Amino acid sequence: MGSRQDIGFAAVARLAGVSPGTVSNALNRPEKVAAATRARILAAIEELDFVPNRAASALRLGTSRLIGLVVPEITNPFYAAIASAVTEEAARLGYVVALCVSHDDADRELAWFDTLAEQRAAGVLVVPRGADRDRLRRLRMVGARLVLVDRVTEPEEGCSVAVDDVAGGRIAVEHLVTSGIRDLVIVNGDPEIPQCRDRSRGAYEAAAAAGVAIRELVLPEMTTAAGAAAGRALAQAPPRGVFCANDLIAVGVVRSLVDAGVRVPDDVTVVGYGDLEVAELARVPLTTVEQPKDRVGRAAVDALVAELTGGDAHEHKASVFPPRLIVRRSAP
Amino acid sequence: MGSRQDIGFAAVARLAGVSPGTVSNALNRPEKVAAATRARILAAIEELDFVPNRAASALRLGTSRLIGLVVPEITNPFYAAIASAVTEEAARLGYVVALCVSHDDADRELAWFDTLAEQRAAGVLVVPRGADRDRLRRLRMVGARLVLVDRVTEPEEGCSVAVDDVAGGRIAVEHLVTSGIRDLVIVNGDPEIPQCRDRSRGAYEAAAAAGVAIRELVLPEMTTAAGAAAGRALAQAPPRGVFCANDLIAVGVVRSLVDAGVRVPDDVTVVGYGDLEVAELARVPLTTVEQPKDRVGRAAVDALVAELTGGDAHEHKASVFPPRLIVRRSAP
DNA sequence: CTGTTAGCGCTTTCAT
DNA sequence: ATGAAAGCGCTAACAG
Question: What is the number of other CB atoms lying within 10 angstroms of the CB of residue A23?
Fold first, then answer.
């Protein structure tokens, strides 16, 4: 009658002839338990096909092993690559990733924060769309940690992991001007989007440094269709070089140019951004700026877990990774 | 001194002048609580910025609001689209989705099952790679429900949601033979993979029905590179029609063919499979078989939740959605 | 090194 | 319609 339980650590404990507390220790702090005892406990677990209940430990500890990943779209290959790296690294460190798609909508993003707060997520990785300071209140309330992805922050706001888009814009345009091109157009997305602003800023810097004039086209969307429209416009009076703020735009631009009889790269050279799969597969394989998506995803998880385990001593840090130019046919 | 708690339902209850049990009812079974009481409770929740703790309810209920989604690769656009639809529908029904990437590896898949069992996931959607019957033991043990995605099962095994790949292969080849082509090659992946087997079977059926001979090339991988290799081989003695088991293969085949001076579609017409984004963006826009990814994802969640809420009365069901031919330039 | 014990916050009878 | 109370399975003191 010492125990009347039949489930959980109690059942294991009984079979192994120990107490539930010792089972917990055997699993979570093996060094506090004699090897022989631990072996008996492990055998009992095996025997019973016992599966520990994380909900109970989450309740007890006040925090779970769940990490929220909030991305604008998972069908965007850039975020898919980030998500892949994130789940991989999270799994390695014993965390589970909750996939949250904001569809570029600030309210939906907010709703996810609330949901994650209810789940007592240990932390959240977010590619922010609307997340201003006080919308994060609920998350803060439950002690969740936050790491911003693909956006640079002031360190006092929390950790962040991003790619240096100013550098990306710069190397793209440097590549163009180095080939002797003195007549440039940048086809950009909405300058309200930080990434677009940064890429464009880098492009202007490089152009200025080379003493080259640059013209900018702003698109309502960063899609192939919008790029194709821009390409048709450009085909009227083609510049020698075009830098597109992402690969989808570039694919559209190239297509329209080629359809209009403008040769790429002979008449016009084009540089894209992002190194999506289409860059390699497109009609004219695209020279583009590659972002180290794997490193970003991994670093984001590492930063979060460091904050989670570091406790008081943790210092926020903004990690910025360098992009890299991949030279293919569209701009040799 | 009636209560000494300061957190959770107890705090809300105190502020609203009710008991914790009533707070629970107000939230979960509003009809059992007087409207005025409920209003007071809601106000108290607002006032305190209270966030309910799902870990506690998961412990109490023995099951969480977590759905596991196990996919081979999230960077594969097909699975990314499924994941997008799944998170969307799950959120609508009040569930959170844990993203689990198996990297096509049966052991990793198994590890995810264990992890999800520990989390007391309510259910799991899996695009199976190794999942045989008894590897699901741990999940069954904790009462998790299972829905197979992109694979058809016997109804007694559980629910499943898939696309009819036999029909897909059939309509692809029907399109080719209808254009008068009597000389066909199918470029397939590993026939161990059910999807490949089915697509090929449908292709043979359609060819046989039209009295057309068909030749099959089996690739070690379903990638653009493998497709390109196949394309080089085909360029030696090009058939009039080619059906590829996925779009990546098709893109590779087309590229090699065009590079070898074979015109697509004038000399050879090519049909792909999957309607990935590259199909539209490729050098020669691809005629391909589209799979209704959104419907699959939504139906999978719906089936799971039906099983979760239906209880005893639930009957397993195998849903199969029809694919659809999208005609583009590669096979007009 | 191991046992005992007191909850974590929520849900759900069973009374009232 | 509401309150009281008993746990769900686990962890972390604290004792021994």
Answer: 28
